[in-house]
Design a protein that fits this description.
Chain A: Pfam families: Fer2, Fer2_2. The complex is a heterodimer. Chain A is of the alpha+beta class. Chain A is built from 6 helices and 5 strands. Chain B has 3 domains: 47 residues, Uridine Diphospho-n-acetylenolpyruvylglucosamine Reductase, domain 2 (2-Layer Sandwich); 116 residues, Uridine Diphospho-n-acetylenolpyruvylglucosamine Reductase, domain 3; 106 residues, Enolase-like, domain 1 (2-Layer Sandwich). In chain B, α10 runs antiparallel to α11 and α11 packs antiparallel against α12. Classes of the chains: A alpha+beta, B alpha+beta. Bound molecules: flavin-adenine dinucleotide (FAD) and FE2/S2 (inorganic) cluster (2 copies).
Chain lengths: 165, 287
C-alpha cells in the first residue's frame, strides 16, 4: 500500500489529479511531477525557507509536507504568484534594490513577504526582519531585502489611499 | 534525504484513527502539522510503515469556552491561531505571548499545539506554558478518554504519560480571573532558534499582593519545569525588589540544569535567574 495514490489539488488555479507516492514531499511533487522548479529546495528540513509556497492562502514549507497531505488543498507557487501579478511590485522592488544576487532564496523571500503584507499592511523594519527569520540568504546580507519589502508596503499603502472611498 | 516508503490514511473520526493505529501492529504514527515529524522522517530518525493523518479530525478542532467558563483548545489549534485568537488572548495569554518565539512564521502556520505538546521537546514553549496555565490534557484511547494534569503529563525527554496509539484531543485551561498578570520571554542566540532558557509567569494579584504565582521554565532539564520554590518566595509579596530577589535566589532549589554542548549548567541557571528578574520587574512596573 506504499503504492502511489491519486490526489486532487488546485495548483496555481488549475485543478488537477495526479498519482503521488505517499513518501513524496509536496516540494518534490511540485518540482518533479509538475515541473514547477521555481520552488527551490535547500535544506529539506524547514530551516532555509527556499521551498515556501502558499497553501490555502498561507505560506508553508513544501519540504515539510507530504504531497498526500495537500490532497484537497489549493497551492500557489512562485510561478502562479508571478502569473497572477500578485507579487509583481515585490519582484520589481527586489530588482530595483538589488535584493537578490544568485536568486536561490528569492521565491521563498517573495512568499514570506506576500504572507507578511497580507497579515500586516505596514510592518516595521523589525517586524520585517522577524518575518524573515526563517529565510536564509547567503548573498545579500538581508538589508536590501528588508528595504525592498518596506518600499512595497509603503507603495501598497499609498495606492490604497488613492482609491476612491 | 528522503523519507522511507510508507502508506497513508486520512481518518475522519477519532474512532477510525484509533482503529487504524490498532491495526498497524505498532508500526503507525499520527501526523498533525508534520513540522517535527516530516523532518524526522526525512532524516530517517523515524520510519513508520503507516502514517495516520489526523489533521482532518473535527473532534480535535475548535477554540471555545466550556460550561464551567474554562477554555477548550482542540489539539489541532495551530501555533499561528494561538498567537491571533481573541479567546486565547483573554484566557490563555501565555500561549499568545509565547507563540512568536516558536520557530518561524511559516512553521507556525502548520504546527499544532497538540503536536508540540505530544512531542514534549524540553526546549519547546507550549508544553511549559501548559504547565504555567494549569492545563488539563484530554486524551483518547481504545478504552475511552481520560484527562491528565499538565503537571503529570511530562515524564522524561520526549516522554509523556500518553500510551502508544493514544490521541491528544484537547487542552482544558481554567478561566482567567481579574487581576491575573502574565508575561513570557526567552533568551536565544538568534531569532527563531530554540531558546537557551525560556520562562512564562502567571500571577494572581487581585489586590496588589501576589495571591498565587505560577512560574514555568523551558530548556532547563529533560521536561518543562515549574519553579515551586520561586513561586512560594513570591506569594504574599507586593512584587517589590526584595520579593523578586528572593524568587531569583530560590531558583537554585528548583532548577538543576546539566552541562551540555551549548552552555554549562551553571550558566543556564544564571540565565534563568536573569530572565526571571527581568520578567518580574516588567510585571512590577506595568500599570
Ligand atoms: C526549523 C524549525 C524550528 C522550530 N523551532 C521551534 C521552536 O523554537 N519551538 C518549538 O516549540 N518548536 C519548534 N519547532 C517544532 C514545531 O513547533 C512543531 O510544529 C511542533 O513541535 C509539532 O507540531 P506538529 O503539529 O507539526 O506535529 P507533528 O510533526 O505532526 O507531530 C509531532 C509528534 O507528535 C505526535 N502527535 C501530533 N499530534 C498528536 C496528537 N493530537 N495526539 C497524539 N500524538 C500527536 C506525532 O505522532 C509526532 O510524533 C520547530 C520546527 C522546525 C522545523
Ligand atoms: S528546503 Fe524547505 S526550508 Fe529549506
Ligand atoms: S540571493 Fe543568493 S541566497 Fe539570496
Amino acid at each position: 500500500m506504499t503504492a502511489p495514490v491519486a490526489i486532487t489539488l488546485t495548483v496555481n488555479g488549475e485543478r488537477l489529479t495526479r498519482l503521488a507516492e505517499p513518501r513524496e514531499t509536496l516540494a518534490d511533487f511540485l518540482r518533479r511531477d509538475l515541473g514547477l522548479t521555481g520552488t527551490h529546495l535547500g535544506c529539506e528540513m524547514g530551516v532555509c525557507g527556499a521551498c515556501l509556497v502558499m497553501l490555502d492562502g498561507t505560506p508553508v514549507h513544501s519540504c515539510l509536507s507530504f504531497a498526500v497531505q495537500a490532497d484537497g488543498s489549493a497551492v500557489e507557487t512562485i510561478e502562479g504568484l508571478t502569473e497572477s501579478a500578485a507579487v509583481t511590485d515585490l519582484q520589481q522592488a527586489f530588482h530595483e534594490r538589488n535584493a537578490l544576487q544568485c536568486g536561490f532564496c528569492t521565491p521563498g523571500m517573495l512568499v514570506t513577504a506576500q504572507g507578511l503584507l497580507a497579515r500586516k499592511a505596514s510592518p516595521s523594519r523589525e517586524e520585517i526582519r522577524d518575518a524573515l527569520s526563517g529565510n536564509y540568504c547567503r548573498c545579500t546580507g538581508y538589508e536590501a531585502i528588508v528595504d525592498a519589502i518596506e518600499t512595497v508596503a509603503r507603495r501598497r499603502a499609498a495606492s490604497r489611499e488613492e482609491l476612491p472611498a | 534525504m528522503k523519507a522511507q516508503a510508507f502508506s497513508y490514511v486520512r481518518p475522519a473520526t477519532i474512532a477510525q484513527a484509533l482503529d487504524a493505529f490498532a491495526g498497524a501492529d505498532g508500526a503507525a504514527t499520527y501526523i498533525a502539522g508534520g513540522q517535527s515529524l516530516v523532518p524526522a522522517m526525512a532524516l530517517r530518525l523515524q520510519a513508520p510503515e503507516l502514517l495516520i493523518d489526523i489533521a482532518h479530525l473535527a473532534e480535535l478542532r475548535g477554540i471555545a469556552l466550556d460550561e464551567d467558563g474554562g477554555l477548550r483548545l482542540g489539539a489541532l489549534t495551530r501555533h499561528a491561531e494561538a498567537h491571533d485568537d481573541p479567546l486565547i488572548a483573554a484566557h490563555a495569554p501565555l500561549l499568545a505571548l509565547a507563540a512568536p518565539f516558536v520557530a518561524h512564521p511559516a512553521i507556525r502556520n502548520r504546527g499544532t499545539l497538540g503536536g508540540s505538546v505530544a512531542l514534549a521537546d524540553p526546549a519547546s514553549e507550549f508544553p511549559a506554558m501548559m504547565l504555567a496555565l494549569g492545563a488539563t490534557i484530554e486524551v483518547a484511547g481504545p478504552e475511552g478518554t481520560r484527562r491528565i494534569a499538565a503537571e503529570d503529563f511530562f515524564q522524561d525527554l520526549y516522554q509523556t504519560t500518553m500510551e502508544p496509539g493514544e490521541l491528544l484531543v484537547a487542552f482544558h485551561i481554567p478561566a482567567a480571573r481579574p487581576g491575573d498578570r502574565c508575561v513570557f520571554d526567552e533568551l536565544a542566540r538568534r531569532r527563531g532558534d530554540y531558546a537557551l532558557v525560556g520562562c512564562g509567569v502567571k500571577l494572581a494579584m487581585p489586590a496588589g499582593t501576589v495571591d498565587e504565582a505560577r512560574i514555568a521554565f523551558l530548556a532547563v532539564g529533560p521536561i518543562p519545569t515549574r519553579a515551586r520554590n520561586a513561586e512560594d518566595a513570591l506569594a504574599g509579596t507586593r512584587l517589590d525588589a526584595e520579593g523578586i530577589r528572593a524568587a531569583q535566589a530560590a531558583l537554585g532549589a528548583d532548577l538543576d540544569p546539566q552541562d551540555d554542548d551549548q552552555v554549562p549548567g551553571a550558566m543556564r541557571l544564571h540565565l534563568a535567574r536573569v530572565l526571571l528578574g527581568r520578567l518580574l520587574g516588567r510585571l512590577a512596573s506595568a500599570p
